[in-house]
Write a structure and sequence with these properties.
about 0% strand; about 70% helix; mainly alpha
């Protein structure tokens, strides 16, 4: 499953959050390219947050409203 699908946001928005190009992120999801270390750290933080929140609530396959709001706040924080 693609990382963007797990987080419930588009590749483009996730690339913006990670401060990489959409094509660079797409290549990462396909396993054809690495992300810069700062982008990997941000992605790890997002996935860790999601995992913690998922463990707190019932296991479900879709991202919760709280998680979506958290990601929207990150987008706003990055002025996008």
């Amino acid at each position: 499953m693609k990382v963007s699908a797990i987080l419930g946001i588009s590749q483009e928005n996730l690339a913006i959050l990670l401060q990489v190009s959409r094509s660079q992120f797409a290549m990462f999801e396909l396993g054809k390219r690495s992300l810069p270390v700062p982008a990997m750290e941000k992605l790890a933080t997002m996935l860790t947050y999601l995992k913690k929140e998922t463990l707190k609530s019932e296991a479900n396959k879709s991202i919760s409203v709280d998680d979506q709001n958290y990601l929207k706040k990150l987008l706003l924080k990055n002025n996008h």
